[in-house]
User: Which sequence fits this backbone?
């Protein structure tokens, strides 16, 4: 019995460390997350390609709710970034708050920009509106080997289009359009 | 010695459970409950998951929403899309925060925001961030692609008249 009593606390200690060790090992630290976020912001705000190479996984997948398809691969993402800067040359984003769990970063972001370049819309390319936008949204990034492997972002695209001077209208039946003409 | 062998695995299981049980898991569980209950429109149970002073700031509305207003809005959504479902893709919890990455879909069977029923099977990706304190939701920030939803239902984007 004595041997049992001495062993049990040791067993407890062992299991506790073993049981929770795995979770701790895989967790991204706040500092690592901050570095990743800083590099991502540097890339998007300044077009800094070396920051992009540091922070993005070469086979990254980007899912933005306003795009009909995913962006696959870092080269495609760099192209997308160039296009965004073409539409909004003073594009400035910031990550306002974030938290880390395992290999995921979840955060709030905000963006300020002026549309002085051609604007890509579901109706095709339109001339610049010269309007300013301020939008906020959330993101969740999945980190592999210290780089962003998958990035999913959500924001209120309707609000953004309204800021650019668009409104939503019900579909116009062809007969009505004829009458207006 | 035999008794020792019997106790070891039991002790192992016990420690694992006790050692890793944390507040975050509780928050996650509360979140799942909230989603499930709201989905089943079970107002009474769902209301209990929200704190008494729950208040939601919604863009476009001067007054923040309490649970009554929130549930009224959810109800009208379910009237328009009776088979609305939530597909939870990921849940990330840390401390009091529960982030839920999800997709939603349903059939447009009745009038929604002035749009008569179209029968379209609409999808609405979203990200919800809940703050859970003492097992109750005190804050709910939802980012959903409503533009995408409206366009699926046939609405069109046009520049405002007289603005170029």
Assistant:
């Amino acid at each position: 019995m004595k041997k049992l009593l001495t062993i049990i606390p040791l067993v407890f200690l062992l299991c506790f460390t073993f049981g929770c060790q795995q979770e701790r090992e895989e967790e991204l630290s706040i500092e690592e997350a901050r570095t990743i976020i800083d590099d991502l912001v540097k890339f998007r705000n300044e077009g800094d390609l070396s920051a992009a190479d540091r922070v993005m996984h070469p086979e990254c997948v980007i899912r933005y709710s306003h795009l009909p398809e995913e962006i696959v691969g870092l080269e495609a993402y760099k192209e997308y970034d160039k296009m965004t800067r073409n539409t909004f040359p003073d594009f400035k984003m910031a990550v306002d708050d974030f938290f880390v769990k395992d290999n995921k970063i979840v955060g709030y972001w905000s963006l300020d920009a002026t549309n002085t370049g051609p604007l890509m819309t579901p109706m095709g390319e339109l001339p610049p509106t010269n309007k300013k936008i301020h939008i906020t949204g959330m993101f969740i990034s999945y980190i592999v080997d210290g780089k962003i492997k998958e990035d999913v972002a959500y924001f209120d695209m309707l609000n953004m289009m309204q800021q650019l001077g668009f409104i939503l209208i019900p579909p116009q039946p062809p007969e009505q359009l004829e009458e207006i003409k | 010695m035999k008794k020792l062998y019997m106790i070891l695995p039991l002790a192992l299981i016990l420690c694992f459970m006790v050692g890793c049980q944390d507040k975050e898991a509780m928050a996650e569980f509360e979140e799942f409950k909230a989603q499930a209950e709201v989905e089943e429109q079970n107002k009474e149970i769902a209301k209990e998951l929200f704190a008494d002073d729950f208040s939601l700031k919604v863009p476009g509305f001067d007054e923040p929403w309490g649970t009554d207003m929130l549930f009224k809005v959810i109800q009208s959504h379910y009237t328009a899309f009776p088979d609305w479902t939530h597909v939870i893709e990921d849940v990330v919890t840390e401390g009091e925060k529960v982030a839920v990455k999800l997709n939603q879909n349903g059939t447009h069977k009745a009038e929604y925001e002035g749009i008569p029923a179209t029968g379209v099977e609409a999808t609405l990706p979203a990200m919800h961030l809940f703050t859970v304190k003492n097992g109750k939701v005190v804050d709910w920030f939802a980012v959903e692609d409503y533009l995408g939803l409206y366009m699926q239902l046939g609405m069109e984007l046009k520049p405002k008249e007289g603005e170029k």
Notes: Helices of chain B lie at 2-20, 23-39, 43-48, 67-80, 146-152. Chain B has five helices and five strands. The first strand of chain B starts at residue 85 and ends at 94.
